[in-house]
Amino acid sequence: MKGYIHSIETLGALDGPGLRVVVFFQGCPMRCKYCQNPDTWALKDGILTDTNTLIKKIENYKPYFGVKGGITVSGGEPFMQAEFLLDLLKNLKKRKIKTVVDTCGYYLSSTVKKCIEYMDFVLLDIKHTVNTEHKKLTGKSLTNVLKFLNYCCSQRKKLWIRQVIIPGINDTKKDMQQLACLVKDCKSIQKIELLPYHLMGKWKWKKLGKKYLLQKKKGPTPEKIRKLKIYLSRQLKCADEI
Ligand code: SF4
């Protein structure tokens, strides 16, 4: 099956357990103000490839995966090409290669549900916990993201939740209370990561002729992130998992 990808990064250690090959799919329905990869937004701007070509490339790295590692499909938003993703996941499963999908949780079609069945776990980015603010930050409402989260929880799918912390946007105790409130009943969440906002993708906006609207924002200090993690842990009453 054919689909569009942006790029492949080999042997990263940040997007899931162990050493991983990260395949960045092209296309995204959101328009996050801090997006590091605005060059993934338009589907047809990507590289047209097919499942077999991807599998061949991925298999070269199989010896490095060990027990925990494998493939992370990121983007862009991988579920925008759900049929292509499903074909890739099925083929990787046959080869006993572990898979993680990094998603903004916007889509939940029957094909997306099948993809969830075939992947080992999900990295879900919850950008903001208040609908109006989510919409301001990403251009899309939070409703779909919550439906996606609830579906994964109902299927007991293993999840890591991630939130990029942006000073003045989602860095208060109240924000952490709201995040805890959304996730606390989901028993399949294994980890919650609070990631500091940074400006590393800014140059891409300039290159694409787009205006970077968070120009004046700076990233939070490590101390701030540490305090928010402690506060969130207390809200969840499961400090060991954060
Ligand atoms: S969901 Fe990810 S790829 Fe899409 S706009 Fe937001 S940060 Fe960028």
Topology:
Elements: E1 2-12, E2 20-25, E3 47-50, H1 51-59, H2 62-65, E4 70-74, H3 82-94, E5 99-103, H4 110-118, E6 121-125, H5 131-138, H6 143-154, E7 159-165, H7 173-183, E8 189-196, H8 202-207, H9 222-236
Parallel strand pairs: 2-4, 4-5, 5-6, 6-7, 7-8
Antiparallel strand pairs: 1-2, 1-3
The site of iron/sulfur cluster (SF4) has 12 residues, from loops.
What this model shows, in words?
The chain is an alpha/beta fold. 36% of the residues lie in helices and 21% in strands. The protein has nine helices and eight strands. It has helices spanning 51-59, 62-65, 82-94, 110-118, 131-138, 143-154, 173-183, 202-207, 222-236; strands spanning 2-12, 20-25, 47-50, 70-74, 99-103, 121-125, 159-165, 189-196. The longest helix is centred in the C-terminal third of the chain and has 15 residues, at 222-236. Bound molecules: iron/sulfur cluster. Residues 28, 30-32, 35, 37, 40, 75-77, 104, 138 line the site of iron/sulfur cluster.
The figure for the number of domains is 1
Q: What is the name of the CATH architecture?
A: Alpha-Beta Barrel
Q: What percentage of amino acids are in beta strands?
A: 15-25%
Biggest sheet strand line-up: 3-1-2-4-5-6-7-8
Helix content: 25-40%
Give me the CATH superfamily: Aldolase class I
Bound molecules: iron/sulfur cluster
Count of distinct strands: 8
Shape: globular
Query: Stretches where pLDDT falls below 50 for ≥5 residues?
Result: none
The CATH topology: TIM Barrel
Give, in order, the helices and strands.
EEEHHEHEHEHHEHEHH
- Sketch the major β-sheet: 8 strands, mixed
> Which structural class is indicated by helix and strand composition?
alpha/beta
Cα-to-Cα separation, first versus last residue: 38 Å
The helix count comes to 9
* Main CATH class: Alpha Beta
